[in-house]
Automatic annotation (TrEMBL):
Protein name: ATP-binding cassette domain-containing protein
Record's keyword terms, sorted: ATP-binding, Nucleotide-binding, Transport
Top-level taxon of origin: Bacteria
Entry coiled-coil feature ranges: none
Residues of the ABC transporter domain: 7-244
GO molecular function terms attached to this record: ATP binding; ATP hydrolysis activity
Amino acid sequence: METQPIINIKNLHKSFGENKILKGINLSTNKGESVVILGRSGSGKSVTIKCLVGLAKADKGSISIFGKEITSLNNNELNAIRVRIGFMFQNGALYDSMSVRQNLRFTLKHHTQDLAESDIESKIMEALDNVGLKESIDKMPSELSGGMNKRIALARAIIIKPEIILYDEPTSGLDTITAREISELILSLQEKYKTTSIIITHDMACAKMSGNRILILKDGLINAEGTYEELEKSKDEWVRSFFI
């Protein structure tokens, strides 16, 4: 029996004033799948995931998550969907005035109101153990390296055990070795928790390692789709330019 896609986007359009960003995006992901979105700056990658969680309102088209059409939901109904989704933002987006423990605690408390203190602590330790940073629990973000900040951001994304994780440039600003470590972490957590992932990246090593399937955006449309190996051998010169 064919299963319903976890995410299903059909004919998605989005403009800002006269600037048409998305011109009819079609995208679907199955449970446990990891989809990478590539594209030049301004091609609409981030706008796509903003529309996906209602942070930007679609002008036209359908967006279905967990079988629910989200374009017609009110804010409370949208929030019920959002609590099942984890985010890893490009800049990490940790609260500077909070320690690592407090950052993770804040996310948990916001997500689940009635957790016992012992449960909160064990979930924080599990999340930090997953990213190899248990010893950093009482450090402030300013005391962490760029790679450590990304790891904590990843811990924060997975601490709620989301069914979907959205990654916006998870390896940006990192050196090659640290970027690879983050990509390996994404892959291992994907396998451990069976999450469905959408990863926006310019990092081809990250795309190759973490994506089951790659979509390439061009001029507001998906121009190409396939595995890393398939797209690398594309006869389309523009598609191949990503792999040079």
